Inverse folding.
């Protein structure tokens, strides 16, 4: 066996080769490159059924819940999500466990000879996300898995993951995000995301604005896909707060599932759970017959979604959330107001330059007493001084502090939290970017 230190070196080399390609934030709308690569690899994405998930918010949490449920029902699962919080290998998981370094390196070595062939034959070389998608599909076929749960990277129709034909397509709530590539209205974005609905598939629709639902339903009708709609065919019937999460009741496609403990916080996660259950019901044929309640309970109880209102430290409590658009920030703010009892809450905020900064900060302003602006360690990040200027407009100058370094920002936020009249009831919220949440998680918990 090759010594572990060699795998660390080889892993770093593979990650460097991937990151040297077009970043996933850059999109050239075509499936030609990924299709050509998958053809050379023997079309691995056709070797197993796929549950395909898109939307603006809630994709990763919903995907992880679908995976946990299907694994509890005895299926070997492959899970592909993006972006990652701390390690690139988080994106590809087998039975809930991220791919190990040895397997990742070996899989890249298997597909590497074909990358140059595709690069040479196409007007543009393969992107980071396209190569990673092909790598995931190939490793799932090699395992083999019984089912792959696949989260889109951006959009739907032109997303690299869409070379697979999902047996089930899940569309979580859709709002405006990535407007540069997807469009500046929810209806236009919905048309792009609805492209994952394939002929004779089953489409699971989260609650959507009427104009968005109309676009999605039109696509489903065009391709002959069956549809299950949250709020009509299934939905949340009740939820109560519980230590470490919540207890929910969900009316599924086939019956009522009660006393489901979900170790995730926020009403939005209960709605994600309803969509996940409907997806699993339709995949397993449970739309005709109710699924085993004990297995459903076990699947939800085992679910996790790091970086989504995740409490990583106490005294003061530090909560991480990867929300990076106004809709996500609103959901996080609502959950903080309902599920936490902070007497004082300090925000640590950093965002990317292409995001609706005003919308994000405005959503957070009612629940944050003060905010510490910091830098996201990414070339796409909004400069700290520009973000701070917007924060002053939203919060006022007396409620804004600036710390360039994240570690200093965390220290400052903890100090501000403890300065109040009730330090035991104070907290810190790190929010605004997946990259920021991941960096804070590494600082506070270490790599997992």
């Amino acid at each position: 066996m090759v010594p572990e230190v060699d795998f660390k070196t080889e892993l770093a080399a593979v990650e460097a080769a991937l990151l040297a390609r077009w970043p996933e934030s850059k999109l050239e709308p075509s499936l030609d490159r990924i299709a050509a690569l998958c053809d050379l690899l023997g079309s691995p994405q056709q070797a197993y059924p796929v549950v395909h998930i898109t939307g603006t918010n809630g994709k990763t949490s919903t995907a992880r819940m679908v995976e946990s449920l299907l694994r509890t029902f005895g299926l070997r699962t492959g899970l592909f999500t993006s972006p990652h919080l701390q390690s690139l290998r988080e994106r590809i998981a087998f039975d809930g466990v991220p791919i190990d370094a040895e397997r990742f390196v070996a899989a890249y070595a298997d597909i590497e000879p074909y990358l140059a062939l595709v690069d040479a034959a196409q007007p543009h070389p393969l992107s980071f996300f396209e190569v990673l998608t092909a790598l995931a599909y190939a490793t799932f076929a090699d395992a083999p898995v019984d089912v792959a749960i696949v989260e889109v990277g951006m959009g739907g129709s032109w997303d690299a993951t869409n070379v697979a034909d999902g047996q089930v397509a899940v569309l979580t709530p859709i709002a405006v995000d990535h407007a540069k590539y997807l469009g500046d209205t929810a209806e236009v974005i919905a048309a792009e995301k609805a492209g994952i609905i394939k002929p004779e598939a089953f489409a699971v629709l989260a609650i959507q604005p009427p104009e968005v639902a109309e676009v999605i339903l039109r696509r489903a009708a065009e391709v002959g896909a069956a549809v299950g709609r949250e709020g009509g065919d299934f939905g949340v019937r009740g939820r109560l707060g519980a230590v470490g999460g919540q207890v929910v009741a969900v009316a599924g496609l086939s019956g009522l599932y009660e006393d489901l403990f979900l170790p995730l916080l926020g009403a939005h996660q209960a709605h994600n759970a309803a969509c996940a259950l409907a997806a699993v019901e339709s995949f397993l044929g449970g739309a005709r017959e109710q699924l085993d309640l004990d297995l459903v309970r076990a699947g939800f109880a085992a679910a996790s979604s790091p970086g989504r209102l995740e409490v990583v430290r106490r005294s003061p409590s530090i909560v991480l959330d990867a929300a990076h658009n106004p809709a996500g920030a609103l959901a996080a703010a609502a959950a903080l107001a309902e599920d936490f009892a902070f007497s004082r809450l300090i925000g640590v905020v950093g965002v990317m330059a292409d995001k609706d900064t005003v919308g994000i900060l405005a959503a957070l302003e009612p629940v944050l007493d003060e905010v510490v602006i910091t830098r996201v360690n990414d070339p796409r990040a909004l400069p700290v001084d520009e973000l701070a200027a917007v924060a002053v407009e939203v919060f006022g100058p007396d409620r804004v502090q600036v710390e360039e370094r994240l570690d200093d920002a965390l220290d400052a936020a903890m100090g501000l939290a403890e300065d109040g009249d009730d330090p035991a009831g104070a907290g810190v919220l790190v929010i605004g970017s997946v990259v920021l949440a991941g960096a804070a998680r590494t600082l506070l918990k270490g790599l997992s």
Summary: The chain has a mean pLDDT of 93. The radius of gyration is 21 Å.
